[in-house]
Amino acid sequence: MTHSIEVRGGEAPADPSTRPLDNAVWAALNGPHARFAERLGRAARYPADVYDFAALADPTDPAAWADLRELVGPGTVVRLKPVDDVPSGWDVVGGGQGVQLVDTTLRSEPAPEAVRLGPDDVPEILDLVARTRPGPFLKRTVELGTYLGIRHQGRLIAMAGERIRPPGWTEISAVCTHPEHRGRGLGTRLVRAVAAGIRARGDIPFLHAAAGNTQAIRLYESIGFTLRRRSPILLVRSPGRPREVRAL
Questions:
Q1: Res 89 pLDDT > 70
Q2: What are the Cα distances from residue 192, in Å, to 55, 175, 185, 189?
Q3: Which one of 111, 203, 214, 221 has the fewest CB atoms closer than 10 angstroms to its CB?
Q4: pLDDT tens for each residue of 3-22
């Protein structure tokens, strides 16, 4: 049985090996996912059709916020984590609390029934995501890493895959099962299979969940993940009016 690390004030335990996870999106965009990065100075983001998060080198640095405004343009809404406060002129338009869990005792193993998913599977993936709401998944998210699925009579009924990749770590994401096929452990089998691929290249699996999703958090802890930290996720709008798009 695993035990959660007690986290006070949303601060990560003092473990140098986990430091890339403190600002995971920034670390990924400046590391293994640099090929996806749209970057200006101390701000970066994934392309809008890949993953809807931006990142700051230091969320307390006004210069990083100025770079982000220039990068995304005025009146643009982006997601950020972990950010506690926003500068004057920026509006918080949504958000919530998230948790980050890391693999400590997870048993990883292939799932022989799982198939690799790719761009041709995106319409089915988006349909499953719409039914199950595991978190953001866009038209090109599948390009971020390996996604595995399980089919029943040709229909995609469960999936899981890799999303952000800070140095030395890979996030397991989009874990979902069609409501008609829950209770069979499909999600757990896929998590173990995705984790096997992550470990094979020398990375450590981790994942995120909404802090209020206690059922998912308990499940992840029961199979070998440990709660590392809690942090806010903010949906913010940059200062200024959106730029008008002129017809040609």
A1: yes
A2: 29, 11, 11, 5
A3: 214
A4: 333 333 344 345 778 999 99
Radius of gyration of the chain measured on its C-alpha atoms: 18
pTM above 0.70, yes or no: yes
The owner of tokens 């470990």 is 199
